Amino acid sequence: MTEGAAPAGHGVTLEGIRRARQAIAGHVRLTPVWPSLTLERLGGAPVALKCENMQLTGSFKLRGATTYVSRLTAEQAARGLVAASAGNHAQGIALAGTRAGINVTVVMPTIAPLAKATAARGYGARVVLHGLSLEQAREEAMRIAAEEGRLYVPPFDDDAVIEGQGTIGLEILEQVPDVREVIVPAGGGGLLAGIAVAVKQSRPDVRVIGVQSAAMDGLRRSFEAGRVITTPSVRTIADGVAVAGPSERTLALVRRYVDDVVECTDEAIARAIVMLIERSKLIVEGAGALAVAALQSGAYVPRGSAVAVLSGGNIDINVLGSIVRRGLVDAGRYQHLTVEVSDTPGELALITRVVAEAGGNILEVDHNREAPGMPVGVALVDFLLEVNGLEHFNELIAALREAGLRGVPGSSARLATHEARRRHDQ
């Protein structure tokens, strides 16, 4: 047994995952599986969403944490627990430990989402903010463990934790009996390894695919190289999987049971978050949206009925707006349009009417009457438009031309009314 770890037995097994399911029954939710017609149309195969974002604490992490706590001896529990986490593992350990009457401390990077730190405190943990990365938070947690005699709870490098996460795999096989592929977000590989063991030891014919953030893809590189490779810490909207790399334990399981590991950019993740809000009415954090990002972006194309795991929904409300806006921009849903108009009554009304009739939505309007080189009586009007994509935007430009505006789109589409063009040419 490693220092501070719960009893690991003889490794992660299907039987261990079944025992974990019995141990956590009544302490975690059986999360729903919902079909996604949008993803089915994109990939040509049925896709269901395993909604762990609706789990207690908003993340799958409660499963592993509860399993870990259930296997502690009375002596171990009396020592107290300490964990390092970007937020979800912290919340899981806080709730599982508090329920069992165990004193819990969690160390989180100073850049961790405020909502996750607040939630961990709400579940009864002492929260220590330390460092700018998960690795620095982990070093502080290990220092606290040594100084205070606490057990350090690994976020993924522990048999009990992995077997707890693997209970999701058992549920998927029961909820979607015809599943052919399971697509799983991955950071350090605990969730991916647990689900893969549960699925492959039950149904070897089902493919298991891991998805990482391209910003920190240590697991993908390790999977391909056959040895642990770590990556430097960088900012990513998938903060829940901002892990340097897998452990020897998780990598061995992933290489044995997982069929492939792919990656997605932050842009693809942002678009997936927007799609889940609009189409599925689900709030999902960056890490939790990785499987959907892979399907939506084409980073992975399913070969049959697939289940995409939404691993968490703990997104900071202050960050959500900017991510949604970024996703809309990347998808071509927000477009800038600059129009030269005669500074006379009726010109602006003409433009807004045409935009409305073409199905566009004007979000912002800005008048500029003092632009360099503009003659008296002519103004520039900048619009921020909401459209359905680039094709729709081009249709809107064509409608404006038909209404009497002319010009060609540049980096920002720019048109001019006949009267404004006449005045500009004078």
How many strands, which pairing sense, and closed or not: the largest β-sheet? 6 strands, mixed
| Backbone CA Rg | 26 Å
Number of helices: 17
Q: CATH topology of the largest domain, which one?
A: Rossmann fold
Shape: elongated
Instruction: Specify the CATH architecture of the largest domain.
Output: 3-Layer(aba) Sandwich
Strand segment count: 15
Fraction of residues in β-strands: 15-25%
Rounded mean pLDDT score: 89
Helix percentage range: 40-55%
Amino-to-carboxy terminus distance: 86 Å
Strand order in space, largest sheet: 1-2-10-7-8-9
By helix and strand content, what is the structural category? alpha/beta
Number of domains: 3
Q: Pick out the low-confidence regions.
A: 1-10, 407-412, 416-425
CATH class of the largest domain, anyone?
Alpha Beta
Task: Provide a compact summary of the structure.
This protein has helices at residues 14-24, 37-43, 61-70, 74-79, 88-99, 114-122, 134-148, 159-175, 190-202, 218-225, 248-257, 266-280, 290-297, 317-330, 347-357, 390-402, 418-425; strands spanning 33-35, 47-51, 81-84, 104-108, 126-129, 151-152, 181-185, 207-213, 260-264, 306-310, 334-342, 361-368, 378-386, 405-406, 413-417. The protein is α/β, with parallel strands linked by helices and 426 residues long.
